[in-house]
Amino acid sequence: MAILNLEVEIDYNFQLIAISSNQKVYTLCWAINNMLSANLKLADSHTINVKKRSVQFRKYISNEQDFYFSLLCNKNLSSRLLPELATVDYIIKVYDEDSPYSESEIISKLRKLKEIQAVYSLDVLKLKSRQALIYD
Predict the structure, then answer these.
(1) Residues 60, 29: contact at Cβ < 8 Å?
(2) Among residues 63, 81, 64, 65, which one has the least CA distance to residue 122?
(3) Class in CATH terms, 15-131
(4) φ/ψ (deg, to 5) at 127
(5) DSSP, res 75
(6) What are residue 57's phi and psi, to 5 degrees?
(7) pTM for this structure?
(8) Could you read off the pLDDT of 22-64 as tens digits, one per residue?
(9) Which of 19, 24, 40 is nearest to 82 (CA)?
């Protein structure tokens, strides 16, 4: 029997911003909405399989006309979405290259929020568990 190998090259056409915050997600969403004039709303949970069990992570999406991004919770009670980022509580995934804000502008604005302790850019290609970020 012949074996057919399928190679798939995934295009990671988004930017990632890591956030460390001890705030509840709804408080952080409110602050981000006010700072970026966004409209983050709770979406269906992001589910991944970890060690033969499904784990759900909260996901908030802002689908404004020119600015589409999502806020992902990096942790739940039993696991992390990106285990190599143990100190990161939330991840912002920016989709549009035509966004009204550059990545550095978003980071600069988020640094002004008292609800955030640390914020920095992530290189998606350097993450071991980057496949967990592919969901839509």
Answers:
(1) yes
(2) 81
(3) alpha beta
(4) -85, 130
(5) B
(6) -125, 140
(7) 0.83
(8) 999 889 999 998 988 888 888 877 677 666 556 677 788 787 7
(9) 19
